[in-house]
Specification:
Layout lengths: L35 H13 L1 H13 L3 E5 L2 H13 L1 E2 L3 E2 L1 H15 L1 E8 L6 E6 L5 E5 L6 E6 L4 E3 L6 E5 L16 H23 L3 E6 L8 H16 L11 E6 L10 H15 L18 H32 L6 E5 L7 H15 L17 E2 L3 H8 L13 E2 L17 H10 L4 E2 L12 E2 L21
Parallel strand pairs: 2-5
Antiparallel strand pairs: 1-12, 2-3, 4-5, 4-9, 6-7, 7-8, 10-11, 13-14, 15-16
Helix pairs in contact: 1-2, 1-5, 2-4, 2-7, 4-8, 5-7
Length: 480
């Protein structure tokens, strides 16, 4: 308890080491447990390399919030209050704060331990505590399926007295060992190279900023140059360099002054540092632009990147959900509720809202398309639609296997392209629009860039170039 007085309102925290471990011998590497040296190394990495610390912080925040949902109204009210107001550590509040610290420990060290502090009357959980891994150790119990949490002491470790009040998690557990794998594993080597490059760059810039001079003085015409003359020149040079104002340096003889290292050039470190950063970013699984690295001309996350990051976040959610279930279940049972519950996470939304809504609309239209590949009335949800005229119906029937009536067809207009400047800085010329006017006729409409015969949803039977004088282009010009 670190020598502090116990508060009467809460039980003592059992996962805190009662006495600091002291030994005259250094701790040697132990492959079966996470050592203090490893923890110190991973903590130092986060402090020394801001990209690593930023990536872990963003993963924790992007994991989002959650809600404990029960089937009982009274239990639901109790669960909502617990998730929002439970005390966490010494100054925190809310189960979300505990989970964030729990996930941060999992990502950094591959292991996390927390404790539930019951209320004095035994009705519910009054506080949650994120235990330091320096105070506890994970090991196998009677069999490899039993994970035991022990408190470190002087010379030996003792299992916690109430294991049912302790939650422990392991990320990417190693086979046959009670220890996890940090997402920082494999980064110390490449990080040390980058830090060495930056340290040498710092040293070189210090030398460039604090210029050193070489003063060479040759004897005059008399050829006499004594030690006193050299000392006098050196003193005058020091006065000139240390003066707060601009001073002239006057000396007899042939005096040459050169900046030391002026002929050398700083080595280019941009390419090697970027190569190392690419290795770090690939290990952490965060898109570079989220970390402030501008490696691409695009400013938005691609759908593939969003899907990959979403799957990563779902994996980390699954790693912390057992702890949430154990804590919420224990609190409900202590309060007299034995009902089941679910943990509902907030939706992870990393996609472009406009593109996502358009994709959903396209999928809905595809489901309502009939077997003949013709869009029915119900398939058209929005836009300009109308009943075809006799002339239009004649053009349509030129592409159908049988003659269709006006009641079987829905006609709508779409803008296929224009001479607006797109996001890549490109545009169609007016001449190319008139060429496309002829090429578009007879082409089928598909969804999701899937050129399949079963994916046909419409067919272009007429196309024309129109001039608009009211449509303002994104670049401030009017379409001709």
């Amino acid at each position: 308890m670190f020598g502090r007085k116990k508060h009467s309102g809460k039980a003592s925290v059992q996962t805190v080491a009662k006495k600091p471990a002291s030994s005259a011998f250094p701790q040697f590497w132990n492959s079966d447990a996470l050592t203090a040296a490893e923890r110190g190394l991973y903590s130092a990495l986060r402090e020394a390399v801001p990209v690593i610390d930023a990536a872990i912080g963003k993963i924790v925040r992007l994991s989002g919030g959650f809600r404990v949902v029960t089937g009982d109204k009274r239990a639901q009210k109790l669960a909502d209050d617990f998730v929002k107001n439970v005390a966490v550590n010494s100054a925190g509040m809310g189960l979300g704060g505990f989970v964030s610290a729990y996930l941060d420990s999992l990502l950094t060290f591959g292991e996390a331990v927390g404790e539930m502090i019951p209320s004095p009357d035994g009705r519910g959980i009054s506080a949650l505590y994120n235990a330091s891994l320096d105070d506890v150790e994970l090991s196998f119990g009677e069999n490899p399926l039993d994970l035991r949490v022990s408190v470190k002491g002087c010379g030996e470790n003792s299992p916690v007295k109430y294991p049912q009040l302790v939650v422990a998690g392991i990320l990417n557990q190693k086979s046959g060992k009670p220890r996890g794998t940090s997402i920082l594993a494999g980064l110390p080597f490449v990080s040390s190279i980058m830090l060495r490059i930056l340290e040498s760059l710092k040293t070189n810039w210090e030398r460039i900023g604090d210029v050193r001079f070489a003063v060479t003085c040759s004897p005059g015409a008399d050829g006499v140059f004594t030690e006193e003359n050299a000392r006098l020149i050196a003193d005058e040079w020091k006065k000139a360099m240390r003066s707060d104002t601009v001073c002239d340096f006057v000396a007899l003889g042939d005096v040459s002054i050169k900046a030391i290292g002026a002929d050398n050039q700083l080595p280019d470190c941009e390419v090697p540092v970027r190569v190392i950063l690419e290795q770090i970013v690939a290990k952490l699984g965060i898109p570079p632009f989220l970390l402030g690295l501008s490696w691409s001309s695009t400013e938005r996350m691609s759908a593939q990147q969003a899907d990959i990051l979403t799957s990563e976040l779902e994996f980390y959610r699954s790693a912390v959900e057992p702890a949430i279930r154990k804590i919420a279940g224990m609190h409900l049972r202590l309060c007299g509720f034995n009902c089941g519950f679910d943990v509902e996470w907030d939706n992870i939304n990393l996609q472009d809202e406009v593109e996502l809504s358009q994709a959903r609309l396209n999928n809905a239209n595809a489901l309502k398309t009939n077997n003949r590949g013709t869009v029915t009335k119900d398939a058209v949800i929005g836009g300009s639609t109308s009943r075809p005229t006799d002339e239009e119906l004649g053009l349509i029937n030129a592409y159908t296997r049988r003659e269709l009536s006006a009641d079987e067809v829905y006609v709508f207009s779409v803008v296929l392209c224009d001479n607006d400047v797109d996001r890549d800085g490109e545009r169609f010329t007016v001449e190319s629009l008139f060429e496309l006017e002829k090429l578009f006729v007879g082409k089928t409409g598909i969804f999701d860039h899937n050129p399949s015969a079963k994916n046909q949803t419409a067919r272009i039977f007429a196309c024309a170039v129109e001039r608009t004088i009211t449509f303002a282009l994104r670049r401030g010009r009017i379409s001709p």
